[in-house]
Specification:
The protein is of the alpha/beta class. Helix content is about 30%, strand content about 15%. The strands form three sheets. A five-stranded parallel beta sheet has the order 2-1-6-5-8. It has a three-stranded mixed beta sheet with strand order 3-4-7. A two-stranded antiparallel ribbon has the order 9-10. Strand 1, helix 1 and strand 2 form a beta-alpha-beta unit. It is elongated and about 70 Å long. The structure holds adenine. Adenine binds next to strand 5.
């Protein structure tokens, strides 16, 4: 294969955490066959003082430690030609990760991802190196590594050749702003509960309509935020509206 494969470069204080779960199952197989590459780089390798320090106390006081701007900038600058790649900083204050962002990242060359630790990262390096902060949810992890793994996993499964059946990515949760419909498989009867009869009818149009209705009902019940956005997008155009 001659094409340059999708590449994730991760800057972390714990490179030994990688590939971790990305080394098994779907992502791991794709990694082994060269459909993508992973480069975990140790931020500490860019420390310059005798103690190899990467963090310091927050200016203005307060608890914890802050990742130094000079050390992190040097670590970013040491990555070969990072200019044309998205530069992300995993952080709970970032823009929430969505399937749309994942699809965009998967379609590009692959991101450079900085994993935050301690109380945070010196604000100046975020601006100076154009880091875009990304959050995987409204909760606080002890560092950005697990968040980076989640982001990479989401991207890798969308890369060409990674998923067995190319259609299995199109039907799933969020691809149309809806949660996924319920699935069933054998046995036909489980603890007194049968598979909905319609799914065994062989009538593809009725199955599709049923799945659509289930996906809509589930989204409306569980995720009013997604439902409102979906309903807004699909509202018929009315010439009297603004
Ligand atoms: N680092 C700590 N918590 C995080 C979160 N929720 N998302 C991304 N990075 C994080």
């Amino acid at each position: 294969m001659t094409a340059i494969s999708w590449r994730a470069t991760v800057l972390t204080l714990f490179p030994e955490m990688f590939p971790g779960p990305l080394g098994v199952s779907l992502a791991g197989k794709a990694l082994a066959t060269g459909l993508w590459t992973l480069e975990a780089r140790d931020i500490r390798a860019s420390a310059t003082d005798r103690h190899r320090s990467v963090d310091d106390t927050p200016a203005g006081g307060g608890p914890g430690m802050v990742l130094r701007a000079d050390v992190l900038a040097a670590a970013i600058d040491a990555v070969a030609s990072p200019e044309d790649r998205p530069r992300l900083l995993m952080s709970p204050r970032g823009r929430p990760l969505t399937q749309a962002t994942v699809a965009e990242l998967a379609a590009g060359p692959g991101p450079l991802i900085v994993c935050g630790r301690f109380e945070g990262v010196d604000q100046r390096v975020i601006g100076a190196r154009g880091l875009e902060e990304v959050s995987i949810g409204d909760y606080v992890l002890s560092g950005g590594e697990i968040a980076a793994m989640a982001l990479i996993d989401c991207c890798v499964r969308l890369l060409p050749g990674v998923m067995g059946k190319s259609s299995s990515g199109a039907d799933e949760s969020f691809s149309e702003g809806l949660l996924e419909y319920p699935q069933y498989t054998r046995p036909q009867m489980f603890e007194g509960a049968p598979i909905p009869e319609l799914l065994l009818s062989g009538d593809h149009a009725r199955v599709a309509a049923w799945r659509r209705a289930e996906a809509e009902a589930l989204t409306r019940a569980r995720r009013p935020d997604l439902w409102a956005a979906h309903a807004g997008q699909n509202r018929p155009k009315n010439p009297t509206d603004g």
